[in-house]
Amino acid sequence: MIRLPRSNNAIAAMVILAFLSACGSSPPATLGLDGGRLAPCPDRPNCVTSNAEDEAHHIAPFSLALDHAATWSALKEAVANLPRTAIITDDGSYLHAEARSRLFGFVDDLEFQLRPDDDVIAIRSAARNGYSDLGVNAERIQTLRASLEAAGVLR
Which residue among 50, 51, 59, 70 is least crowded, i.e. fewest CB within 10 A of its CB? Predict the structure, then answer.
């Protein structure tokens, strides 16, 4: 067992508690649709959404190249194949998945909303905890977009 000097024990305990609370966090109340739209991003650089008007949080929606059913099916398969990702909800036009970080198991919430009238899928991807995600959510969405574009599912 590692013994820390007494003054560092309190710091170590706080770090461990913060880590454990972040890993076991509950889904935020903002998940799902509110007024037919995905929730806005918080005022932190750990979220991207196609609904955002500010450049810091905005990411383009997915533009469909196939019919709605085929696109939704391909999206579900691609999301399910992301590392350490589990689909939590899928009702055919709204999908919520949880992606866990490799090292600490921090949870990011991925949300997709089919908007058939616009031939797009709206996107929201946000870290559940912390201030910054170091661009992980945007990168994950862009990787997913590139994969679906290469497969001819998106334009």
Answer: 70
- Helices (H), ranges, 57-127: 68-80
Distance CA 76, CA 68 (A): 12
Task: Give the model confidence (pLDDT) of 19-57 as tens digits.
Answer: 444 445 788 888 999 899 999 999 999 999 999 999 999
The DSSP H or E segment spanning 141 is helix 136-150
What is the 8-class DSSP label of residue 59? Answer: -
pTM of the model as a whole:
0.83
Mean pLDDT along residues 115-119: 97
Task: With cut-offs at 50, 70 and 90, classify the pLDDT of residue 3.
Answer: low
Q: Phi and psi dihedrals of 86, rounded to 5? A: -130, 135
Distance CA 59, CA 105 (A): 24
b (16+ CB within 10 A) / e for 128-147: beeeebeebbbebbeebbee
User: Residue 73: how many CB atoms within 10 A of its CB?
Assistant: 13
Rounded distance between C-alpha atoms, residue 95 and residue 113, angstroms: 7
